[in-house]
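Lab notebook page, bench 4
Experiment: in silico fold of construct C2
Operator: M.H.
Input chain length: 80 residues
Purpose: comparison with the prior construct
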Amino acid sequence: MPNIEGHHGVATWSQKPDYKTYKSPYGPNGITAGSFGVVGAVFVLQFFADVPKVRTDIMQKLPVVGDYFIRDIPPSDNPF
């Protein structure tokens, strides 16, 4: 069996480095990709909230704020 060695004679899979990787103090602390996804989804829903299909199919079915997105036209504003 051939002797496969990594850098400086240490096999890369057999020994972990004794130092920690650098963590920037300016990087995200505890923010995961899921939270970015939730913020993005809320932004998209609010951005497209006035599109009639989005308003009726998605926004009106939300439990707390669904009644806000119901748009009733009074009969006095009907031109016909």
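Observations: The mean pLDDT is 80. Residues 60 and 70 are 6 Å apart (CA to CA).
Next step: discuss at group meeting.
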